[in-house]
Amino acid sequence: MSILILGASGQIGAYTVQDLTEFCGEKDIIASSRKMSNVKKAMDDLRLTKNVKLMEIDATDTARVLDVIKKEKVESVVNCAWYQTNLGVMDACLKGGATYTDLGGFFDTCLKQIDLHKKWKDAGINATIGLGSTPGMTNIAGAAGAKRLDSVDTIDIVCAWGNTLPVKEAGWPGYSIRTVLDEFTQESVQWLNGKYERQKILGGEKEVLMPEPIGKVKSYYIKHSEPATMGKYLKAKNVTFRIGFPYHDMATFLTLRALGFADDKPMEVGGAKVSPLDYLTAMYQKGVADARGAPPKEKFEYDMFRIDCVGKKGGMPSTVTYFIVTWNDPERGVSSARDTAVPPAIVAHWQHTKRIKEPGVFPAEATVEPEPFFKELGKRKILVDEQVTASTKFY
Ligand SMILES: NC(=O)c1ccc[n+]([C@@H]2O[C@H](COP(=O)([O-])OP(=O)(O)OC[C@H]3O[C@@H](n4cnc5c(N)ncnc54)[C@H](OP(=O)(O)O)[C@@H]3O)[C@@H](O)[C@H]2O)c1
Prior knowledge:
Rossmann fold, 2 domains, 7-stranded parallel β-sheet, 14 helices
């Protein structure tokens, strides 16, 4: 009975396979992507080829995904391909009786996935969606904070990253360039006063204090799925998501947008017809594949998340703050790939071993036990700190 990973050639998917085999001890793994050569190279780079079965699978081909689930007796699917494939893959899992997890549905797709809850409940299968760093770890931190409080009013999430190199290199996206450009071209939706509110692109500027070496950083509202689910599941009045981009990355992404690289309409160049977005994606995929074979020798790059849960405890104002910090690691690869790849591996392993089994479609904050999850992260040098601020009145 196996676990199937779709999009295993990606920046994240390859490390999810690594974690499932090396940390979770899963023995029966199928690693797949649309091109055998891509997934083979990714598995070769991580020296995993001998431990996994390789397959060429297009996640948009629902019939093929279902066929593989049946023939290979797949019990759990981890979808690490682009989020536009989530709904079709879920359909195959539902028909084939396999549990499902993914890296997130970028607000709109996430809500469509949650709408499938009753069908999955009736079928008796668990889907826990939106597992990565954010969405993923941050949702689970929000759930942990809500548990510490009697009632939670506001959850503010900030994601930031950077490096300590003396000469800052031009920004390299730590996640799919397609998603980066979605974030720079679509209005965000935040959960404010108990309802969804549209906000302008890069609106809601706020200075936030992150752990060193970031310190103070300007952060902006970004379209993401955390505000889509956390307000409702954790009964919070406000849930916001912001990114504090390093200056160089922000400049790079704004330049790509200004040059029209977010455009998905094909144009003719030198006899070939390709959209700027697909061309940029191909260049990015090549860069990811080239870099994976040479893991960083030093700790210089980091990912950081701050989750503030503000509410009441014993009738008094109280705040629970989580800081999640990951540095790149000479043995286990760069920070952004690790902290995003590990959560879906842990959850798929827990689904496979029936530790997560509630039938239906749920966001991470609803099914994942925070403390055991944080301990699993700690084993992989993804560090979660909790700070509780309580108030006392002497009158
Ligand atoms: N929750 C989080 O914290 C988080 C963080 C980062 C990224 N993400 C999301 O996760 C997804 C993947 O991100 P990434 O950074 O790993 O992107 P990526 O490096 O572009 O990888 C995605 C991989 O999926 C494969 N793929 C694309 N379409 C496919 C299809 N139809 N069938 C099967 N495989 C397909 C591609 O490989 P082939 O060309 O070989 O098929 C590609 O290597 C994105 O949607 C991104 O937004 C979430």
